[in-house]
Amino acid sequence: MNLNELKKSLSKLPLGDIRYFDTIGSTNDEALAWAANDTPDLSVVIADEQTAGRGRLDRKWFTPKGTALAFSIVLRPTPEERPHLTRIVGLAALAVAESLRERGLDARIKWPNDVLIQNRKVCGILIESVWSGEDIDCVVIGIGVNVSQGSVPPEEMLQFPATSLEAELGQAPDRGEIVRDILAALIGLRPNIGTDEFLKQWEDLLALRGETVQVETEKTPPVMGQISGLESDGSLKIRNEHGEFVTVRFGDVRLRPLA
Ligand code: BT5
Asked: Cα 182 to chain center, whole Å?
């Protein structure tokens, strides 16, 4: 991957500016700094290697050279999108899942921010915001996809099983094509973000739906129950062991099957 090849594969999409790095700390850090300097909507930072890739709560995201996709999108919400900012994680997850499904993979969304294939994590998403006073000025959507098997971290680094597109497809697809497909899907889904149809599409792709899961959050005791769907703001609805519905809001949530 290099900037010219990348620009060629992304040339038909209505993007802002594109910055490409052979190696970088974190594409989200770069995008956050860039976004604070008025970069246009849908600008993209992409890197071949991250040396300080981040997950939520400063967990590490593994992105060794030449094996993965690591990119960050600067999204400047329109006035129509502003009431639906909590759905942006769904927008990103749906864009990844839908574009992988187009390749025949059974990609599903582990709420809130992972994409799984056969219950193994192939993609992690990190949403961060740039604030201007009390308002969100723009949102940075960071997406990491394991393309070659070399991008899958050693077992001891994992809290949840992981996989790569190479392992699932039998060969590693072209990274330029994958990033193009994800961005095209995101651009296509974006105008629907506030609709019921969008919520339904998101809900239909939830992983572990109907299965008994345990959800751990920082603030509340663990919730055990079955995933029943999503609230309008994208929060998760769980039916607990007493048959009551409990809403799990965003935050640092760890969801795992109770197998
Ligand atoms: C995430 O966090 O899954 C969000 C990851 C976002 C990464 C992208 S890459 C582009 C952009 N730039 C950045 O610096 N970040 C974004 P979380 O749910 O907290 O999961 C983190 C956990 O996933 C780690 O603690 C590991 O257990 C595991 N992990 C790390 N690297 C992985 C990988 N390549 N594949 C699967 N699991 C991984």
From this structure: 10
